[in-house]
Amino acid sequence: TQAARLERLARLPLRDNLRGLKPYGAPQLDAPVLLNVNENTHGVPSDARRAIMRAVERSLTELNRYPDREFTELRESLARYLGHGLSADNIWAANGSNEVLQQILQAFGGPARTVLSFPPTYSMYPLLASGTNTEYLSGERASDFSLSAVSAAEQVAAAAPQLVILCSPNNPTGTALDLEVVRAVYQASEAAQSIVIVDEAYAEFAHPGTPSALTLLPGRERLIVSRTMSKAFALAGARLGYLAAAPEVTDALRLVRLPYHLSALTQATAVAALEHSESLQANVEDIKRQRDRIVDGLRALGLQPAPSDANFVFFSGVQNPGKIWQGLLDAGVLIRDVGIPGSLRVTAGTEQETTAFLENMERLLAAEG
Ligand code: PMP
Prior knowledge:
Number of helices: 12
Number of strands: 12
Oligomer: single chain
Strand content: 5-15%
Pfam families: Aminotran_1_2
Keywords: Amino-acid biosynthesis, Aminotransferase, Histidine biosynthesis, Pyridoxal phosphate, Transferase
Structural class: alpha/beta
Bound molecules: 4'-deoxy-4'-aminopyridoxal-5'-phosphate
Pathway: Amino-acid biosynthesis; L-histidine biosynthesis; L-histidine from 5-phospho-alpha-D-ribose 1-diphosphate: step 7/9
Low-confidence stretches: none
Helix content: 40-55%
Number of domains: 2
Distance between the termini: 41 Å
CATH topology of the largest domain: Aspartate Aminotransferase, domain 2
Domain Aminotransferase class I/classII large: 33-359
Catalytic activity: L-histidinol phosphate + 2-oxoglutarate = 3-(imidazol-4-yl)-2-oxopropyl phosphate + L-glutamate
CATH class of the largest domain: Alpha Beta
Shape: globular
């Protein structure tokens, strides 16, 4: 039984700060419409899929050899994709941006060190902190979950952490940070010389005119902008996250990475996908349309969706989130209860999936009366 298993786990010589923790993960339930973990619901376009197949097949002839430990071609492709005058020396990658973040914490965090972030935010941050024995400090947001430059800077100056993680667009709320916040946080961390990470996993879905923290990199050698191919590139299954930073930051990460951590198959897949970023971009545009439909639709139903620059929408004003969540699941639509009272989060689907979500929401809210 589960209880016996937990008891046996408790008898193992587990590290103290891992005792009682639960592994991260949304429930992996099977439903026809999966809108719970902010995946790209549009899949990999067929031209990109064919290119990936060919690239992976080519890589098979050398699968007996270790892959390029420095993944040079991939770093060059990622630098080209990001633009902003970046070169391969500015780029680092790993198996998902979760691993990128873990490597940053391995290099700059650790015992007697702290990482400050601002909940509600990505729930992996505290787990990555405990996994690397780094103390996690919870900063505060305004009651509408916004974070002002003044407040963020004050909190960073007071905490003097070794690391700060800003998530923009923020998960689970979906809203992008004003770059003023990043500038102010960087300045406030001057005394402590903190590493400042901006997690831009959802950057490609931002509204036009939302600048990326990539624009702030010149002259800021403690700033790291983290990205992923899991969302805009629809490659969650391939596991490729990356970052842009000063070359010395990537040198710090070389000290903690496992040798050959990016498989030849991963490198081939990512390079081929980057060559087809245009057809992937077309899907991003449709996802943004569906995201805006969700915001408008939920508002019309009397709920309060947060402004979203991501491929998901966080909405409040739900009287009974658990019941709505279950009602949607009974209708085959799985969304996410992120544990914030009166609120739920939904990923933008295909047009059909989005319609299924909105129609069921209307029906369930009407039934609530
Ligand atoms: N950062 C944020 C804010 C996320 O929401 C996610 C995925 N849910 C990640 C990082 C990690 O994504 P991946 O490891 O697939 O790159």
